[in-house]
């Protein structure tokens, strides 16, 4: 009986003594390891989501720019301008600026050309689009001497690449900056759009490149994705 009483007393003292210092240290180490793993997984997941979001935004921005520019170029046309019949479709052609005549968004029943300008702003690197409408002149001519500005917009997102526009002849020869005499020889325009909105979230920029032909000029249309 005495032994049984002593055994209960030892068990009671063991329960009252709690955990030892070694056990506490082991528990703290295990908790620290588990916390490190959980935090690492959380940070990795957050970074992955941020990267995916940045790439999605950059892709959308680049696509909007490419679609707008390609549509205008594809509808490029020569026009009978007062004082210069059959003026070339391209008016100004540089690596960062394109001014041209186009039938983009024109009425199929009563097509009217517009003058479209795409310029990359040297400070913000954003692409700016402006459109002007001509005045109708006699004998089927169009008067662009004092055109009316009908729209202006700036696309979001900086274009970080050097050359946005490269010009090509019907033979496929690239002409980076055509002279006035070469404007009528341009059959297609290669457009390159590079967008890298948040370099911290995504280390890889989004790059879209497309060669757009101008079938209204009578050249063979060439387009590559």
Automatic annotation (TrEMBL):
Pfam families named in the record: N_methyl
UniProt keyword annotations, A-Z: Membrane, Transmembrane, Transmembrane helix
Keyword ATP-binding carried by entry: no
PROSITE patterns: PROKAR_NTER_METHYL
Transmembrane segments: 21-43
Protein name: Type II secretion system protein
Species, as recorded: Mycetocola zhadangensis
């Amino acid at each position: 009986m005495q032994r049984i009483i002593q055994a209960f007393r030892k068990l009671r003292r063991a329960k009252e003594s709690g955990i030892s210092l070694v056990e506490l240290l082991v528990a703290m180490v295990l908790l620290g390891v588990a916390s490190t793993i959980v935090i690492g997984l959380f940070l990795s997941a957050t970074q992955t989501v941020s990267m995916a979001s940045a790439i999605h935004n950059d892709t959308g921005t680049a696509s909007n720019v490419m679609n707008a520019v390609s549509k205008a170029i594809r509808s490029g046309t020569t026009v009978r301008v007062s004082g210069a019949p059959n003026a070339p479709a391209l008016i100004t052609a540089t690596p960062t600026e394109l001014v041209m005549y186009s039938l983009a968004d024109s009425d199929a029943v009563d097509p009217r050309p517009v003058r479209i300008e795409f310029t990359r702003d040297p400070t913000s690197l954003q692409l700016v689009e402006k459109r002007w409408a001509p005045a109708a002149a006699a004998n089927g001519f169009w008067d662009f001497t004092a055109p009316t500005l009908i729209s202006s917009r700036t696309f979001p997102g900086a274009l970080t690449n050097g050359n946005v526009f490269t010009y090509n002849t019907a033979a496929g020869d690239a002409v980076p900056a055509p002279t006035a005499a070469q404007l009528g020889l341009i059959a297609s325009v290669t457009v390159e759009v590079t967008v890298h909105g948040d370099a911290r979230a995504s280390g890889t920029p989004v790059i879209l490149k497309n060669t757009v032909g101008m079938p209204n000029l009578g050249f063979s249309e060439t387009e590559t994705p």
